[in-house]
Amino acid sequence: MAIPAVGEIVQIHSYKHNGRIHRVWQETMVLKSTNKVIIGANERTLVTESDGRTWLTREPSITYFHSELWYNIICMLREDGVYYYCNMSSPFVFDHNAIKYIDYDLDVKVFPDMSYTLLDEDEYEEHRQLMNYPQVIDSILKANLQKLIQWVEQRRGPFAPDFIEAWTNRFKFQRQLNDEKKQQNPEHD
């Protein structure tokens, strides 16, 4: 699988199980890129919904995608702390300058104190029947939901105490590097 370069600006494409586009984030800067993990960041990026509506994200966020886990994590940096929005999803693929995954409706919202709540169980059940999610997908998602909750409770991955500070600093540094490159090569804008 091709992977983006650190510093590259990519899109994020969320699809539904039936193959239809669900949501697109226009610009996310890649901070780490391996065959297994992509960590990115964005701030005030344009998001386009499947019905064409658009909106801007309100706060900086760090995004975490893994090629073997059936969830991804958006860490939203707000004034009163870090909130995590975790999408139960297929593992990501990187294709045509975009991080792509299938969104499976279930979400976990994690608060700054590491308490959490499961969201959209009704939507998951409705779409599971409507789009005929195979039983194996249902089993995989439920197992990965338990793994995600263990990560939260054990403060692993993006929930680790030093994760946000390290990647926020990396985002600031990478933006500065990209700005310097633009100043040195203005014809590439």
Automatic annotation (TrEMBL):
Keyword Magnesium found: yes
Taxonomic superkingdom: Bacteria
Pfam families, per the entry: DUF402
InterPro entries attached to this UniProt entry: DUF402, FomD-like_sf, Ntdp-like, SA1684
Binding positions (Mg(2+) 1): 87, 103, 107
Cofactor(s), names only, from the UniProt record: Mg(2+)
Catalytic-site annotation from UniProt: 23
Enzyme Commission numbers on file: 3.6.1.15, 3.6.1.6
Binding site for Mg(2+) 2: 105, 107, 120, 123
Catalytic reaction(s) noted: a ribonucleoside 5'-triphosphate + H2O = a ribonucleoside 5'-diphosphate + phosphate + H(+); a ribonucleoside 5'-diphosphate + H2O = a ribonucleoside 5'-phosphate + phosphate + H(+)
Gene3D superfamilies with a match to the protein in the record: FomD-like
Signal sequence coordinates: none
Span of domain DUF402: 18-156
Magnesium in keyword set: yes
GO molecular function: magnesium ion binding; nucleoside diphosphate phosphatase activity; ribonucleoside triphosphate phosphatase activity
Keyword annotations from UniProtKB, A to Z: Hydrolase, Magnesium, Metal-binding
Function in brief: Has nucleoside phosphatase activity towards nucleoside triphosphates and nucleoside diphosphates.
NCBIfam families noted in UniProt: PRK13662.1 (NF010183)
HAMAP family attached to this UniProt entry: Ntdp
Family: Belongs to the Ntdp family.
Official protein name in the record: Nucleoside triphosphate/diphosphate phosphatase
Organism expressing this protein natively: Candidatus Kurthia intestinigallinarum
Lineage: Bacteria, Bacillati, Bacillota, Bacilli, Bacillales
